[in-house]
Specification:
Layout lengths: L10 H5 L35 E5 L2 E4 H15 L5 H23 L6 H27 L2 H12 L6 E10 L2 H12 L4 H8 L11 E6 L5 H9 L9 E3 L2 E12 L5 H27 L19
Antiparallel strand pairs: 1-2, 3-4, 3-6, 5-6
Helix pairs in contact: 2-3, 4-9, 5-9
Catalytic activity: [protein]-peptidylproline (omega=180) = [protein]-peptidylproline (omega=0)
EC number: 5.2.1.8
GO molecular function: peptidyl-prolyl cis-trans isomerase activity
Length: 301
């Protein structure tokens, strides 16, 4: 819908929004393009020990491919189709070749490499710990408790189901109003003249919405109207609207199954955050450098 603003995604989902957690990102080189025939569509999981390629006789296994998919697959966007899988396998082949060349030059013995390996090992162990803490925290009891604690504080919120016709000028809106007074069908006129590409084809139907999901001028009129009534022309930043209210209701509280995924994600992230906080509180940490200080407020001009 042209003029609908970003609103809340649902009471429970909104209430369960978790604080963002530390994002650890590793730079990933551009994937090399290695021509290879597209594999047939898989109907069953591939054995992790399956050899998918050899490099000078050395095997590259499906287990290594899956590890790379987990690490860099999301950066490719979308589902893992045969083309993306080929890119990843080509990237792994390049890694194997470059790593072997680096070994010959004894680059693995440098202090820089040893430091990098120690960091990557620590990072991988941290992620393994957080994955375990998060998984252990997502129990049915925890999910139900979070849901119950959230919905008990929810207050009823009114929703309106309305249609509208959006035009550019007041004169056009008044012309629409006259046609409606003569008995023409609202949905038919909306399909004919409405400038809203989202709802026009649907006879102006906007479905149910809460007051904060619409621009104020539109929302004020829609929530004042009784079901079956049509508004006078209403001006907003998008143009002129003629609104028809179909019905009103109290917004239903989402069921547990409707918000289960959000709750599980929240419980997982909360457990990970609490795990890091506990580790910090239990440790004796001494900074030897000078930690960054927040900027002092600037004097008023």
């Amino acid at each position: 819908m042209m003029f609908q603003i970003s609103g809340r995604s649902g009471h429970a989902a909104r209430a369960m929004a978790a604080a963002g957690f530390l994002a650890l990102c590793a730079a990933v080189p551009a994937l090399a393009q290695t021509p290879a025939p597209a594999p047939a569509t898989q109907t069953a999981p591939i054995d992790p020990n399956t050899v998918v390629a050899t490099i000078d006789g050395q095997p590259l296994t499906e287990r290594e491919v899956q590890a790379a998919v987990a690490e860099i697959g999301p950066s490719l966007g979308g589902a893992l189709d045969p083309e993306k899988r080929d890119q990843i396998i080509g990237f792994l082949i390049d890694i194997k070749l470059a790593a072997r060349a680096a070994e010959k030059e004894k680059l693995a013995d440098t202090p820089e490499f040893q430091t990098e390996m120690a960091f990557l090992r620590d990072k991988a162990l941290m992620q393994a710990l957080l994955d375990k803490r998060g998984k252990d925290a997502v129990t049915e009891q925890t999910v139900k408790q979070i849901y119950d604690d959230t919905v008990k504080d929810l207050k009823p919120e009114q929703e309106v189901h309305a249609r509208h016709i959006l035009v550019e000028t007041e004169d056009e809106a008044k012309a629409v109003e006259e046609r409606l007074k003569k008995g023409e069908d609202f949905a038919v006129i909306a399909k004919e003249v409405s400038k809203d590409p989202g709802s026009g084809a649907q006879g102006g139907d906007l479905g149910f919405f809460t007051k904060d999901q619409m621009v104020p001028e539109f929302a004020d009129q829609a929530f004042k109207l009784e079901p079956g009534k049509i508004s006078d022309p209403v001006k907003s930043q998008f143009g002129w609207h003629v609104i028809k209210v179909e019905e009103k209701r109290e917004k239903p509280i989402p069921t547990l199954d409707q918000v289960r995924d959000q709750i599980e994600q929240y419980a997982n992230r909360r457990a990970q955050q609490e795990a890091i906080q506990k580790l910090r509180s239990d440790a004796k940490i001494e900074r030897k450098d000078a930690p960054a200080q927040p900027d002092a407020p600037k004097p008023a001009q």
